[in-house]
Amino acid sequence: MKRSEFNKIKQAYGQVSSWALWLKGKTKADTSDISLFINPSDDMIKKIHTEYIFVGLNISGPIPRDRPFGNFHGGRNDYWLRDAIKDTPLVGSYMTDILKFHVDPNSTSVIKYFKNKQEELDAHIIKFKQELIDIGANKSSKLIALGNDTFSILKNSNLENPILKLKHYAYRQRKGENKAISYRNEVQDLLGLKLTVN
Questions:
Q1: What is the DSSP letter of 164?
Q2: pTM, two decimal places
Q3: 118, CA 20 to 30 Å: which among 3, 144, 149, 153?
Q4: Angle ∠(125,126,128) on CA atoms, nearest 5
C-alpha cells in the first residue's frame, strides 16, 4: 500500500477502523499503543493490506478523534486476536465494523435493535460496501466475520467477496479450556495452516 492511500483511509475511516498490527503494551493485555499509526514507518506501510479484512459487529465504546485507527486497540480482549494471528497472513489486515458509530457492548441488544429496522441496516451495508471500494479492496479480498451475528449480516448483504467466519475473540472460554491454544487453532482451521503457540 502506498503512503498516500494509507493517509486517505486514515482521513476517511480512522475513527471506525484499524489494522491488525499491535505494539507491545505495558502488560500482556495492553493493546492501546497506536503510535505506529500516527507516524507510520515505511516498514509498517508495507505490512498493511486488504487481502483479508476483519469485520466486527459494532464498537463497544466511542473512539476519540485523537486516536485514529484506535478501533480494536484498547479493549480488554483485543490481545486474544493479536496473539492468535501472530506470524500468519492475517497480520496487517484491515479491520472495521459492519455497523458504524452504533455504540453498544451487548451484541444481543444490537441485533434486537436492528431486527425491525431493515432500512437502517441497509444504510450501514451500503456504507460498508463503499468502504471496501475506498480502501482498495477487490472481489478476492476475504472478509472475516468476527462472530455469528456479523457473519449472518454479511451473508445477507449480496457481497461478491468470500466470507469466512471466526469466533469472536471476546468469547467466554469453557472451564478448563486453554483459550490461547483453542483460539489459535480457530485461526489455523480458517487458514489451513499448522501453527504453534509460544
A1: E
A2: 0.93
A3: 144
A4: 60
Is residue 42 predicted with pLDDT exceeding 90? yes
CB atoms within 10 A of CB 52: 24
User: CA-CA distance, 107 to 80, in Å (whole number)?
Assistant: 18
pLDDT at 197 over 80: no
**Residue 34 pLDDT:** 95
Q: Which residues pair with 144 in a beta bridge?
A: 54, 164
* CA–CA separation, 94 and 136 (whole Å): 11
Mode of pairing for the β-strands spanning 18-19 and 163-166: unpaired
pLDDT tens-digit map of 152-169: 999 999 999 999 999 999
| Cα-Cα end-to-end distance for the chain | 30
Query: For residue 164, what are the β-bridge partners?
Result: 144
Provide the greatest CA pair distance for the chain.
48
Q: What angle do CA 183, 121, 149 make, to 5 degrees?
A: 20
SS3 for 143? strand
pLDDT tens per residue, range 141-155: 999 999 999 999 999
Q: State the average pLDDT over residues 1-18.
A: 95
The sign of the CA dihedral 87, 100, 123, 131 is: negative
Q: Please state, in angstroms and rounded to a whole number, the distance separating the CA atoms of residues 114 and 121.
A: 6
The cell numbers describing 197, all together, are: 503457540
d(CA 134, CA 12): 9
